[in-house]
Specification:
- By secondary structure, the protein is an alpha/beta fold.
- The protein is built from 9 helices and 7 strands, in the order αααβαβαβααβαβαββ.
- About 40% of the residues lie in helices and about 20% in strands.
- β1, α4 and β2 form a beta-alpha-beta unit.
- α3 packs parallel to α4 and α6 runs parallel beside α8.
- The model has no long low-confidence stretch (mean pLDDT about 95).
């Protein structure tokens, strides 16, 4: 038994829909490891339930696993907007959401996250957001952050995934890797930003939790 298996046996059970999404993702998608998975999914669910958000914004839907975890904490009148760049995933995402009790509270936008953050009326109408989850192109994390920070309410939260990048973040062999470079810039920016509180959790690929100061 691995430590991760031990942990998963001693935390809340993975909902059956999410188990199916994980299985289908590994069967049919490239880079299936990008799915949040049981442990991170339960953490995202718990954080969302603690925050009790009315409005959530997610950058990077993939097959919808993390979206549904975050939706578990939504208020009854709450809504989550999730953005996915890969239009080939739209049918899969829509099917997965349709099986969820939160389906009517989820809006899926297909397109480039930076462009949509700059131009989407749907996003502006829903702001300010209580919670933002960033899990899209690692090269653009700094740009995402600069665009979403004004959209987050005071004392609201931003969660960024993959911020330790499987250890590459401190590995000189990855100095020329564009995704590693993007994450290093993001981490340095957050470390220096006095407008927010922040902590990095060494969970999976690294999860940074950021709270906007009141």
């Amino acid at each position: 038994m691995t430590l991760n298996q031990y942990i998963e046996e001693h935390i809340s059970k993975e909902p059956s829909l999410l188990s199916r999404i994980t299985r289908d993702t590994y069967l049919h998608q490239l880079n299936p490891h990008m799915v949040s998975g049981h442990l991170q999914g339960r953490l995202l669910s718990m954080l969302s339930k603690m925050i009790r958000p009315h409005r959530i914004l997610e950058l990077g839907t993939f097959t919808g696993y993390s979206t549904l975890c975050l939706a578990e904490g939504l208020q009854q009148d709450g809504q989550i907007i999730t953005i996915e760049h890969n239009d080939e995933l739209e049918e899969t995402i829509t099917r997965n959401f349709s099986q969820s009790p939160w389906n009517r509270q989820i809006r899926l936008l297909i397109g480039d996250a930076v462009e949509l953050l700059r131009s989407s009326e749907q996003i502006r109408e829903q702001a300010p957001f209580d919670l933002v989850f960033i899990d899209a192109d690692k090269r653009q994390y700094t740009q995402y952050y600069q665009l979403v920070l004004p959209l987050v309410r005071q004392a609201g939260f931003i969660i960024a995934d993959n911020t330790l990048w499987d250890g590459h973040i401190i590995d000189p062999d990855y100095d020329n890797d564009h995704q590693t470079q993007g994450l290093r810039l993001f981490n340095d920016l957050i470390a220096q930003d006095q407008r927010v509180e922040k902590v990095i959790l060494p969970l999976r690929d690294g999860l940074t939790i950021i709270q906007v100061k009141s």
